[in-house]
């Protein structure tokens, strides 16, 4: 139905959703079964035939409408990892939203996987429906359609200002059959629309011709749904007038579109054939509902469908710009949806193959896609959406490529909330098995429709990843002992709600006696990490954590968009071996309600952190470029990436905290005097040269931002085989952070303030998660910016001379413009960091819901003087509120290298 007849943004009541973890996997080869399936009573079969290729992997189904907000929002590693090839944004100076300007985001977009940058031209209007729901007329009585000057203005600005004008796609109409040309009256509206299409088309082409830019790409018509006859009329008209769209656009938004899209696309292809037209690429510039965003098991259904048709598609914009349509988290993080995007993007350069689901074109069912990389001898299956065990029936595994023995690795990607900080999805199966006649049967126990799975199959490799064992306990909030709170059901069929783990959560947690209590068993004495999936309603909040009936510590939750816009909060714990009772409570003393205690609780995950935070990113998971490829000829290095010259291997490492991590590259050399080149988020890290042939581990201690980090390895001199890149954070790295020779952390109010910059006090009653004094009061600095004199200045600590640094701000930005239409009109704020005697670097701070809630934002600095002070401000606009400022050396100490025996 027309978009003006449904809400574009919806704030649901507190509710819940849940994801059952995969606890076991059964592997069946012929008649041999490793273990029986116990997760579900029945099994569904997903058949994959790797011998039947269905074309080159297109990779366009991870597009996003207004997924980019500003330069740096989202961060470049998040954008690159998601492999976004297409996005639709607003025109320069468009009034529809305060950010998302095509010229502001093109730099970061094209620095990644970006190909088509679409511009919604009518977003020059501030309102929805556009122009008060009426087609513009000639209000000036000058004989010119009032929309044409707007179109020309957009085309002129892009033609003269954009660095990539030939890669911009102009979309002159967005859902035109709704307010401007009612589809129910198409017989009377057709001629008017087609005449307007011509006028818009010619206006854009004329501007590009004036500037010698050749043909301007134009997309349309932009229907809110598929319409066969209007589409036929436009295609026939476009052919006759040489005004065909370069991209054919319509939207697939509702739940039932998972069942109807293929039929719509078949009709579209039939129209092209009947009119004698060549293939015109399709972009579904809006797909999916709130419930689909950030939910791996939903996204994989949409992506599989669009990849099968080889069309591009963009997740719909239901909330705010700059977070990949709710598929990234915080300033630099990835949620479960982001990892689905990342897995999908990892298939670039492959051939897709035939996949047969249990039911095609069925809503909310098991679906999947698969691909084969013949160069790197790797087969991949991505699937999800069902709630039963999955029997993967794999055929066509060519023994000339894979041999008769393969390694199989399966990872699980869970729903983790829109603001959930998801680390590397865990390995839930890792087996070496025999293949018979190219056939393999895998049974994946599954009862979670919200999860997606990645299956990778390669010849036997030297370092197959083990099954992850760090998750000790995962308990749904509704399965705890709940007091003075309510369990809510989040109906997964309700389109305008975000999913909750297991479709339930605990809300109305608003009394001093409110509590959720459960038991865990610690396998040994040591350190643990409790990760709480929860939602706050626009403000930060606090709960008290009790262990075995004794208060242990306060839980600080940052603010969220609303109760069901969930995120994760991590709490470090020290537990002795054995069974313990954990309890989250609304009061520390049983009487006084904690500030902001009304928080929706969804899931409690307890991780073993005794060995620290560790992750391994094997070469078989890396994105290889520049001629790098996997090598299998030697048993000791089978599955390593052969690097030489321009060849690179890139992994996207997820970190739980901002701070020092050891980055270790494991590699082998076939000649002496070789060196790996490592770049971390685009910055070089010097690794030692090895002087002999052998196997090596090179380690650098680097200060990383929380979230996604892009690590790229190369070997310009060649003759190097990369096994993996590993990250680790434990006692040694924490000690490096505590060393004042490496890191200086100060309260922002302790710095030198100038102009309007002022200190603000946030009493304990605000529930702020900022750095508090002994009375629980948080002090932050406000009113920085909006003039060159309104600054704070940080003197350079002794020993912090010229070199590479990270400057980390704990900052708050809740800025919004007036609610001119359906979306939260959030605004990014910026900080400029200027070194006296050096340069100025700008950092972007996305909206984080509350002025009392603080997130880390890391800005890389290259300082060129020995003592030049750092002045922090924003001469052109307001800056975020600042709680703490941390200056850290990018690398602590020198990188080391050791032989691996």
Automatic annotation (TrEMBL):
Q: Please give the superkingdom of this protein's source.
A: Bacteria
Question: Which protein are we looking at?
Answer: CBM6 domain-containing protein
- Gene3D superfamilies from the UniProt entry: Galactose-binding domain-like (2.60.120.260), Glycosidases (3.20.20.80)
Q: Which UniProt keywords apply?
A: Signal
Positions of the CBM6 domain: 473-607
Q: Region annotation Disordered: residue ranges? A: 81-101
Signal peptide start-end? 1-34
GO molecular function annotation:
carbohydrate binding
């Amino acid at each position: 139905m027309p978009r003006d007849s449904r809400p574009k943004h919806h704030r649901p009541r507190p509710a819940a959703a849940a994801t059952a973890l995969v606890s076991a996997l059964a592997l069946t080869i012929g008649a041999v079964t490793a273990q029986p399936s116990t997760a579900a009573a029945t099994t569904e079969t997903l058949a994959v035939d790797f011998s039947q290729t269905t074309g080159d992997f297109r990779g366009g189904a991870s597009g996003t409408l207004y997924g980019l907000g500003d330069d740096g929002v989202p961060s470049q590693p998040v954008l690159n990892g998601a492999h976004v090839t297409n996005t639709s944004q607003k025109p320069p100076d468009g009034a529809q939203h305060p950010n998302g300007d095509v010229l502001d985001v093109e730099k970061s977009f094209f620095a990644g996987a970006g190909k088509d940058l679409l511009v919604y031209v009518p977003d020059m209007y501030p309102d929805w429906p556009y122009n008060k729901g009426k087609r513009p007329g000639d209000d000036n009585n000058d004989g010119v359609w009032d929309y044409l000057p707007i179109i020309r203005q957009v085309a002129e600005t892009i033609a003269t200002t954009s660095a990539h004008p030939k890669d911009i796609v102009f979309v002159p109409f967005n859902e035109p059959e709704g307010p401007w040309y009612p589809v129910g009256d198409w017989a009377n509206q057709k001629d008017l629309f087609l005449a307007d299409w011509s006028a818009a088309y010619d206006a854009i082409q004329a501007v590009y011709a004036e500037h010698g830019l050749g043909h301007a790409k134009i997309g349309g018509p932009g229907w809110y749904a598929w319409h066969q006859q209007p589409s036929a009329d436009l295609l026939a008209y476009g052919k006759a007038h040489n005004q065909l769209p370069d991209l054919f656009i319509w939207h697939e938004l509702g739940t039932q579109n998972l069942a109807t899209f293929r039929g719509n696309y078949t009709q579209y292809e039939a129209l092209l054939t009947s009119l004698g037209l060549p293939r015109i690429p399709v972009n579904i510039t809006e797909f999916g509902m709130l419930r689909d965003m950030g939910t791996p098991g939903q996204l994989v259904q949409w992506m599989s469908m669009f990849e099968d048709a080889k069309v591009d598609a963009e997740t719909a914009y239901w909330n705010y710009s700059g977070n990949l349509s709710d598929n990234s988290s915080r300033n630099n993080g990835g949620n479960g949806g982001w990892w689905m995007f990342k897995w999908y993007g990892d298939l670039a350069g492959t051939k897709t193959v035939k996949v047969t689901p249990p039911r095609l074109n069925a809503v909310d069912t098991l679906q999947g896609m698969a691909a084969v990389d013949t160069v790197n001898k790797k087969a991949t299956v991505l699937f999800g959406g069902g709630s039963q065990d999955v029997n993967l029936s794999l055929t066509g595994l060519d023994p000339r490529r894979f041999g008769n023995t393969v390694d199989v690795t399966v990872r699980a990607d869970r729903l983790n909330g829109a603001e959930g900080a998801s680390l590397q999805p865990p390995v839930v199966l890792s087996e070496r098995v025999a293949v018979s006649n190219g056939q393999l049967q895998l049974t994946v126990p599954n009862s979670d429709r919200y999860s997606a799975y990645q299956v990778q199959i390669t010849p036997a490799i030297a370092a197959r990843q083990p099954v992850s064992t760090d998750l000790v306990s995962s308990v749904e909030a509704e399965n705890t002992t709940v007091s003075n709170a309510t369990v809510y059901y989040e109906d997964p069929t309700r389109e305008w709600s975000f999913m909750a783990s297991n479709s339930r959560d605990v809300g109305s947690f608003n009394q001093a006696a409110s509590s959720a209590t459960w038991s865990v068993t610690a396998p040994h004495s040591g350190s643990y990490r409790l990760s709480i999936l929860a939602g706050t309603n626009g403000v930060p909040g606090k709960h008290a954590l009790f262990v075995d009936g004794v208060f242990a510590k306060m839980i600080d939750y940052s603010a969220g968009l609303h109760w069901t816009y969930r995120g994760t909060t991590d709490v470090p714990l020290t537990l002795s071996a054995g069974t313990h009772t954990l309890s989250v409570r609304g009061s520390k003393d049983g009487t006084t309600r904690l500030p902001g205690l009304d928080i929706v609780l969804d899931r409690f995950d307890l991780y073993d952190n005794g060995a620290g935070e560790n992750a391994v990113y094997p070469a078989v998971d890396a994105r290889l470029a520049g001629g790098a490829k996997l090598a299998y000829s030697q048993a000791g290095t089978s599955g390593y990436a052969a690097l030489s010259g321009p060849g690179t291997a890139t992994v996207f490492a997820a970190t739980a905290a901002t701070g020092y991590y050891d980055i270790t590259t494991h590699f082998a050399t076939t000649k002496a005097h070789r060196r790996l080149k490592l770049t971390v988020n685009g910055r070089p890290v010097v690794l030692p040269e090895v002087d002999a042939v052998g196997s090596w581990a090179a380690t650098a201690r680097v200060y990383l931002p929380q979230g996604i980090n892009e690590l790229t390895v190369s070997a310009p001199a060649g003759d190097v085989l990369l096994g993996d890149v590993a990250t680790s954070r434990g006692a040694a790295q924490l000690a490096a952070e505590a060393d004042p020779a490496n890191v200086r952390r100060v309260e922002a109010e302790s710095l030198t303030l100038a102009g309007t910059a002022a200190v603000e006090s946030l009493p304990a009653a605000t529930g702020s998660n900022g750095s508090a004094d002994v009375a629980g009061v948080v002090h932050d600095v406000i009113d920085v910016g909006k003039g060159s004199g309104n600054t704070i200045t940080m003197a350079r600590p002794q020993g912090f001379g010229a070199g590479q640094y990270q400057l980390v701000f704990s900052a708050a930005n809740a800025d919004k413009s007036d609610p001119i239409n359906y979306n939260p009109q959030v605004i990014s704020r910026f900080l400029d960091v200027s070194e006296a005697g050096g340069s100025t670097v700008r950092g972007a701070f996305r909206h984080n819901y509350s002025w009392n809630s603080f997130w880390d934002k890391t800005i890389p600095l290259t300082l060129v003087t020995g003592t030049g002070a750092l002045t922090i401000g924003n001469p052109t606009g307001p800056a975020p509120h600042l709680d703490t400022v941390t200056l850290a050396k990018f690398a602590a100490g020198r990188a080391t290298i050791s032989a691996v025996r």
